[in-house]
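Marked as duplicate of an earlier ticket. Keeping the data here for the record.
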Amino acid sequence: MSLFAQTALAAFVLVSLMHLSAILLRKEMWRKISKIFLMPLLICFYTAAAKNVLPAALLGAVFGWFGDILLIKIDDKRFFVLGLLGFLLGHLCYIPSMLFFTGALHIKALIISAVLAVPLWFLVNRIINPSPDMRVPVMIYSGIIELMVLSALQLMLYRRDLPGILPFAGGVFFAVSDGILGRYTFRTLPRYGNFPIMLGYLAGQGCILLGLAYC
């Protein structure tokens, strides 16, 4: 890993800790400022560290950054929908990035996981229980993130090493984070509700791009 990549990764971890601390301490200004710099630092790390810089992976991270910025004003439904679109496009970019390294699909795992994904998709949407005007966007989004996790599973089964495991772990972190976000977007957010959301999100983005960088 180059010095620049190490510095960018260390800065991402540091700013992530600052952001999470700002949530716990309820320092809104620092929360908003730190959120703007999270993905650019991770993008710098990925471009410096990756053996194969995939345009789709890079674009996925950029869309994630757009989603971060838009969801700063999460109380505004228009910004929430646009932020959701940004993350959805990011997931759509991560899917081919992961499948790029698989070589071949693990058919048995694909069939089993696809069968399990259907009832899980219904369960997630029932738990989130969005408002009628948001039901279709949330259902589409949850379906896309399931496809992203399945793609990461294929990568993990093909590689069977740390770079293969990390994107799958990242996909799971991302799914949990988005599930919590979806649940409380339509309800009263607990005092520190943003903390597990952002913890899962940062772990998800970090694991995905770290794994893809070394595949």
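See parent ticket for discussion. Residues 117 and 149 are 10 Å apart (CA to CA).
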